[in-house]
Design a protein that fits this description.
The chain is α/β, with parallel strands linked by helices and 331 residues long. It has a single domain, classed as Alpha-Beta Barrel (TIM Barrel). It has an 8-stranded mixed β-sheet. Strand 6, helix 3 and strand 7 form a beta-alpha-beta unit. Helix 4 packs parallel to helix 6. The longest helix is centred in the first third of the chain and has 15 residues. The protein is globular, with a radius of gyration of 19 Å.
């Protein structure tokens, strides 16, 4: 049976004319979420969709995702498409029985109604299912590690969190996805602020970059009703340093092995001369939203009033100066 409903992020709903409103920063990607009346079968400690969360299940991170008739969303996408400033469709998939079949159905219908490239974000899949997605026209796939180390992963997504996921399974699925979709066509999410060290983040960023995986960086944002609702977000200064490190590693300007860290695992040296670091900062690119092309995720992990952890647009001069000052603060 084809899914009759699908969720859309509130910014996407505004862009498609499904609800009235004006987005402070319009999304460049149409963000959709599979509709399920129950909760996700996973139990990620930071997620309002988690099996054990008491949050409203119309949320993903800080964003509201109202449900609409699937046909209405598809017809609006067909009518607006690229003319509405959209460059991509991204389907986020909640893990529940039948979710993969629902995803196949939605993607097939999206492919018929829109020429926009399609990304999907889902749990680790085996090679056969990955090939199915590739075969029906999915351009890119995201499989989220979220945690920067196995120890943190176990606490927030794995056994200790009461979840079904395993670190090794995620890494294996990412490698399989790269083999099927190609280098640079597979994304993973890393969340800063789950109890990991800078050295853990920089090491996994290097390992994933070597595999050809694109990294989308997030700042942890506490959501009421989740297991981690009492955990504070990372400092802006720390997040800026990790953004800079990810940019330098991802662009091949430095390797993890060249960087230096103190006894607490904090960055003390980026491994590059100051002029090269300042040149990299100057574009503002390290501090903008990262992930698939045309993904700007407006206000996904922050309030519109700020502070902005990921900028969904180019930085203004004052913002760039502040980001530069924070990023080069070294302990």
């Amino acid at each position: 049976m084809e899914p009759r409903k699908v969720r859309a992020s509130i910014g996407t709903a505004i862009a498609l004319g499904l609800v009235d409103g004006r987005a402070a920063v319009p999304p460049r990607t149409a963000y959709l979420l599979t509709y399920h009346e129950g909760r996700c079968s996973s139990n990620c400690a930071f997620c309002p969709q988690a099996r054990g969360a008491s949050s409203k299940n119309d949320r993903l991170s800080r964003v509201i995702w109202p449900a609409f008739p699937a046909e209405e969303v598809l017809s609006r996408l067909a009518a607006i498409g690229e003319s509405g400033g959209l460059g991509r469709i991204c389907l986020q998939v909640v893990n529940y029985e039948g979710a993969f079949d629902d995803s196949l159905s939605l993607i097939t219908r999206l492919r018929r109604s829109s020429r926009l490239p399609i990304s999907i974000s889902c749990w680790p899949l085996g090679e056969d299912l990955l090939r199915k997605l590739r075969g029906i026209g999915v351009e890119r796939i995201g499989i989220s590690l979220d945690a920067a180390s196995e120890e943190v992963f176990e606490r927030v997504k794995g056994r200790l969190a009461g979840g079904p996921y395993r670190w090794e399974e995620h890494l294996r699925s990412l490698m399989d996805a790269v083999a099927i979709f190609g280098e640079g066509m597979v994304t993973t999410h890393l969340i800063v602020g789950l109890g990991e060290r800078d050295i853990d983040l920089c090491r996994i960023i290097q390992d994933l970059s070597d595999l050809g995986v694109v990294i989308a960086l997030f700042a942890f944002s506490p959501v009421e009703g989740t297991a981690l609702e009492g955990l504070a977000p990372p400092s802006l200064a720390r997040y800026r340093r990790i953004q800079l490190a990810k940019h330098l590693i991802g662009k091949g300007l430095v390797r993890f092995e060249q960087m230096e860290f103190d006894e607490e695992g904090r960055i003390t040296d980026f491994g590059l001369p100051p002029p090269k670091i300042l040149s990299a900062i100057g574009s503002g690119e390290p501090f903008e939203t990262s992930g698939c092309p045309d993904c700007n995720r407006p206000f996904y992990t922050e309030r519109a009033a700020g502070p902005l952890y990921n900028f969904p647009r180019p930085l203004r001069e004052g913002e760039l100066e502040e980001a530069r000052a924070l990023a080069i603060q070294i302990h």
